[in-house]
């Protein structure tokens, strides 16, 4: 991969993933506020930025011992700091993902699929949205499907992130049926769902954390 | 954006700090996590009442903490529901041994966070009942939306359930009377101009000159349609008619009429709306037994109002009249 290496999807990767989420969501704060302002109440960017800044503050206390521990730390922090609908939804997603990661040292392709499927199932259970409702499920659902094929963990993540991005873009023509955007009815058509977009950023961050420049700390 | 603030991120905390100082005789503000309790904490042997939601709807909810109403309120970030780690200690602080009723507005975020918190409370051994307020008739097809929203009717639920708890009703009875208010209260609102969330820095929606939004929720999110501006009497009819029709109104009923300001409309205009709403109710043979006019459930500085009608019976009227002593509602004490 020429100067770039794929790292194992281990505890260090999980910590890098969460830090990368915080970096990207801080960078995309305004964009997510703007998307949410159009069909919600304009707080999604602020809430996600606040939540992941709190996650980084926790990570700064010391490295996670396992993938599951990192995901659980994220779950508890997001549930406590984000609020709105996104807090319980992402909190539940990371909590279920943590349980699915179990005691694995690192994730391979099937484990990535299992973790993402558990996250999606948690979101569906809490939010009761179905595909096509114009919610983050429209990014999570294709992501899980795409992660099913590759045996390799990084390839599964890459497939999931790309599918989430396509799924998020595909929310544009939909009529919202859940959350605050649902009150707009047909007027929600033509706008991207902010939760689906933040999901795409979070899954892309997982890939970025896996494909890193060779450095002393990252070499297997 | 011109606002009387310091740092957009400090708005909720600094406002609560002032609130706590101004009403130190009635409430205590707790920090980390943030919630507001009645001064002196839970009343032993009384059902606890907790509500909460996004900030920006003042005096909802912290303004209604005190004798005869809420035992604790949980403010979230502006227009964002509070989190379970705030709701749990607020519920513990409100628990006087007989259990606690959570009064929750039907918004996705509020419902999810209170649902999670109720599970945590149950694990701590507190019997928590959740009463969902969904008085907004503007949301027409609940099948394809998150359902009817909880708006200004919430104040009436909090007042009446609070009075029932104060007179010593059981958890079942307080829950039942709160649900009876929910079943008999309807609201609808309109916006003349949007508001600006401090950390977003821009208006929360767009309205052209001469346009108004009919059927808004308390964040300005729409429910029915965007129409041209009309005289107050016409707009009042646009709001009152769906409210009354949804209540399944019959001549001879006694009602409470609340004309609520969204934060940026003068009281004089609210009284113009009240005047017409009272006329329309009289035309339908209703008797307005109790009334309330003012900013009770706001959306920051939004211009607009909502109309709420509650069908009264003898018990609801006497619970409404019962003494209340909170920062924002006070009589009979």
UniProtKB/TrEMBL annotation, chain A:
Domain DhaL: 12-208
Signal peptide start-end: none
Keywords per UniProt: Kinase, Transferase
UniProt cross-references to PROSITE patterns, sorted A to Z: DHAL (PS51480)
A molecular-function term among this protein's GO annotations: kinase activity
Phosphoprotein in keyword set: no
InterPro entries linked: DhaK_L_YcgS, DhaL_dom, DhaL_dom_sf, Dihydroxyacetone_Kinase
Alphabetized SMART domains for the sequence: Dak2
Claim: Kinase is one of the keywords in the record: yes
NCBIfam families: dha_L_ycgS
Protein name in UniProt: Dihydroxyacetone kinase subunit L
Organism: Sinomonas terrae
From TrEMBL, chain B:
Full protein name: Dihydroxyacetone kinase subunit DhaK
Cross-referenced PANTHER family: TRIOKINASE/FMN CYCLASE, TRIOKINASE_FMN CYCLASE
GO MF assignments: phosphoenolpyruvate-glycerone phosphotransferase activity
One Pfam entry name: Dak1
DhaK domain residues: 7-331
UniProt KW keywords: Kinase, Transferase
EC id: 2.7.1.121
Enzyme class: transferase
Listed InterPro entries: DhaK_1 (IPR012736), DhaK_dom (IPR004006), Dihydroxyacetone_Kinase (IPR050861)
């Amino acid at each position: 991969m020429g100067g770039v290496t794929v790292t194992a999807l281990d505890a260090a990767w999980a910590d890098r993933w969460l830090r990368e989420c915080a970096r990207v969501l801080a960078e995309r704060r305004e964009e997510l506020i703007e998307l949410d302002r159009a069909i919600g109440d304009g707080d999604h960017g602020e809430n996600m930025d606040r939540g992941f800044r709190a996650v980084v503050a926790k990570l700064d206390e010391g490295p996670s011992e396992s993938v599951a521990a990192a995901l659980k730390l994220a779950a508890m922090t997001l549930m406590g700091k984000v609020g709105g609908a996104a807090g319980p939804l992402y909190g539940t997603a990371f909590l279920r993902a943590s349980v699915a990661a179990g005691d694995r040292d690192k994730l391979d392709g099937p484990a990535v699929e299992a973790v993402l499927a558990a996250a999606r199932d948690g979101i569906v259970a809490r939010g009761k949205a179905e595909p096509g409702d114009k919610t983050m499920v429209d990014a999570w659902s294709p992501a899980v499907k795409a992660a099913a094929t590759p045996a390799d963990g990084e390839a599964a993540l890459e497939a999931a992130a790309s599918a989430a991005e396509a799924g998020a873009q595909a929310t544009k023509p939909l009529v919202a049926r859940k959350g605050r955007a649902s009150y707009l009815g047909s007027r929600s058509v033509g706008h991207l769902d902010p939760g689906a977009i933040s999901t795409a950023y979070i899954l892309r961050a997982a890939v970025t954390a896996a494909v890193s420049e060779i450095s002393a700390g990252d070499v297997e | 954006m011109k606002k009387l603030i310091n740092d957009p991120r400090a708005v909720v905390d600094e406002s609560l700090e002032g609130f706590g100082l101004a009403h130190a005789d009635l409430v205590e503000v707790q920090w980390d996590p943030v919630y507001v309790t009645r001064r002196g904490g839970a009343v032993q042997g009384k059902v606890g009442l907790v509500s909460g939601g996004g900030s920006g709807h003042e005096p909802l909810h912290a303004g209604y903490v005190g004798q005869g109403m809420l035992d604790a309120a949980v403010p979230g970030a502006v227009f964002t529901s509070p989190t379970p780690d705030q709701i749990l200690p607020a519920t513990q602080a409100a628990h006087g041994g007989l259990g606690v009723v959570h009064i929750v507005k039907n918004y996705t975020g509020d419902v999810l966070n209170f649902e999670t918190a109720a599970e945590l409370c149950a694990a701590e051994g507190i019997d928590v009942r959740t009463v969902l307020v969904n008085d907004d008739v503007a949301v027409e097809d609940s099948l394809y939306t998150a359902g009817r929203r909880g708006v200004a009717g919430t104040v009436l639920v909090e007042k009446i359930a609070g009075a029932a708890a104060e007179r010593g009703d059981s958890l079942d009875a307080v829950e039942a009377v709160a649900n009876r208010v929910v079943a008999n209260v309807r609201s609808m609102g309109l916006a003349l101009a949007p508001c600006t969330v401090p950390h977003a820095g821009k208006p929360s929606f767009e309205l052209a000159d001469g346009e108004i939004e009919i059927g808004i929720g308390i964040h300005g999110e729409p429910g029915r349609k965007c129409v041209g501006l009309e005289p107050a009497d016409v707009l009042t009819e646009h709001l009152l008619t769906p409210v009354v029709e949804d209540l399944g109104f019959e001549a001879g009923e006694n009602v409470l009429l609340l004309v609520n300001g969204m934060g940026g409309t003068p009281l004089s205009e609210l009284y113009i709306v009240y005047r017409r709403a009272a006329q329309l109710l009289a035309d339908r043979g209703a008797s307005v037994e109790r009334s309330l006019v003012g900013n009770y459930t706001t959306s920051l500085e939004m211009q607009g109002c909502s109309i709420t009608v509650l069908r009264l019976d003898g018990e609801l009227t006497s619970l409404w009249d019962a003494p209340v002593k909170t920062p924002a509602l006070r009589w009979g004490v």
